[in-house]
Amino acid sequence: MSAGVELCNVTKRFGAMTAVDNVSLRIEPGEFLTLLGPSGCGKTTMLRMIAGFDVPTSGAIRVGGEDVTALPPYRRPVNQVFQSYALFPHLSVAENVGFGLRMQGVAKGEAAERIAQAIELVSLAGLGERRPHQLSGGQKQRVALARALVCRPKVLLLDEPLSALDAKLRHAMQLELKQLQRRLGMTFVFVTHDQEEALTMSDRIAIVNRGRIEQFGSAHEIYHRPATAFAADFVGQANLLEAEFVRRENGTVRVKLSGGLELVLSAATWPDDTAKALISIRPEKIHVSKQPVQAENVFAARVEEEVFKGALDHLILVTPGGARLNAVAANESALLEAIHAGDQVFCGLHASDLVVVRA
Ligand SMILES: Nc1ncnc2c1ncn2[C@@H]1O[C@H](COP(=O)(O)OP(=O)(O)OP(=O)(O)O)[C@@H](O)[C@H]1O
Ligand SMILES: [Mg+2]
């Protein structure tokens, strides 16, 4: 039912512009894979090459083990949902959903059955006779989805399909899409530039930057073990700091940050024979308290700024040596002593929460 997708050394140039730069990627059958990256990094171009709307300048694309590089779009077991929905305004919901089946010459009786199933699948039962202008944004999105699913592709490509929806509907559709994908067991290749959306939905995420894959892994791996400064900064927030090697100490490496702050990190993560490296620290890994704290790293700081965000407090900390760090503290209880700008605080940071990243 579902198929894997492989990109093998795929490059796409438009004139002098390299949109996709020697990308190799293996997507497993039944996987929810997200291509995540900023505008213009090459996400849509990758999707279009999988679909067959663009031809790679070099490299090969396989779907279900078969080389499809030379096949036209309609010969590939792949279907696409576009950002703009691209519904036919003069056709009803059912006719829109059935459009692909009519093109394929599927018999009327079978088509009617499959259309009804697809409409049911996306929770639009009863709305088959409506025209697109009589639907909400979320309902139109569902029609576009049903229209792609009714053809029973082995791989579904989704190019920022939720970007036109308001935040609340978008969150609801994220969960719905994920559930649908699980239920169908279909391979989804999903494109977004929204890191939260990627974390919410994906089995694995490929971080794309300037036509290349920066990192490929589970949401968990990418968030907790970013490989590059770009990945650390693009997914969540990160303190990116230059660290200088001081010495090895049983199982850890002691480093010195700008501002003189010395910290230890897990020795396994420090590259051998390296005098300097970039490290990433997630703001919420810094435990901030007015009481002394316990951790492998303990240091004092002054709160320069405090921004109340409801569930969280965003803090800017400055160490006595002048190092600035972003931290996040949970507002666990209104009864606990609140932290305010100007306060002197204790900070704790575990050695395993300092991650060495490539620049
Ligand atoms: N047909 C084309 N001719 C020339 N350049 C193109 C063409 N299609 C895309 N590009 C360029 O290739 C690069 C990648 O474009 P692409 O549409 O894949 O980016 P994207 O990651 O999908 O961006 P967005 O998030 O804005 O949709 C961009 O610099 C774009 O201008
Ligand atoms: Mg795009």
Instruction: Determine the mean pLDDT.
Output: 93
Order of helices and strands: EEEHEEEHHHEHEHEEHHEEEEEEEEEE
The spatial strand order of the largest sheet comes to: 6-7-8-3-9-10
Low-confidence stretches: none
DSSP helix count?
A: 8
CATH T-level topology of the largest domain: Rossmann fold
Number of domains: 2
Give me the CATH architecture of the largest domain, please: 3-Layer(aba) Sandwich
Notes on the protein architecture:
The structure is a single chain. By secondary structure, this protein is an alpha+beta fold. It folds into two domains: 5-226, P-loop containing nucleotide triphosphate hydrolases (Rossmann fold), CATH 3.40.50; 239-357, RNA polymerase II/Efflux pump adaptor protein, barrel-sandwich hybrid domain (OB fold (Dihydrolipoamide Acetyltransferase, E2P), Beta Barrel), CATH 2.40.50.100. It has helices at 43-51, 93-103, 108-121, 137-149, 167-184, 195-201, 219-224, 229-234; strands at residues 5-14, 17-27, 32-36, 58-63, 66-67, 78-81, 155-159, 187-192, 204-209, 212-217, 239-249, 252-257, 262-266, 276-281, 287-289, 297-308, 312-318, 324-330, 344-349, 355-357. The strands form four sheets. The chain has a six-stranded mixed sheet, sandwiched between helices. The protein starts with a strand and ends with a strand. The mean pLDDT is 93. Bound molecules: adenosine-5'-triphosphate (ATP) and magnesium ion. Adenosine-5'-triphosphate binds next to strand 2 and helix 1.
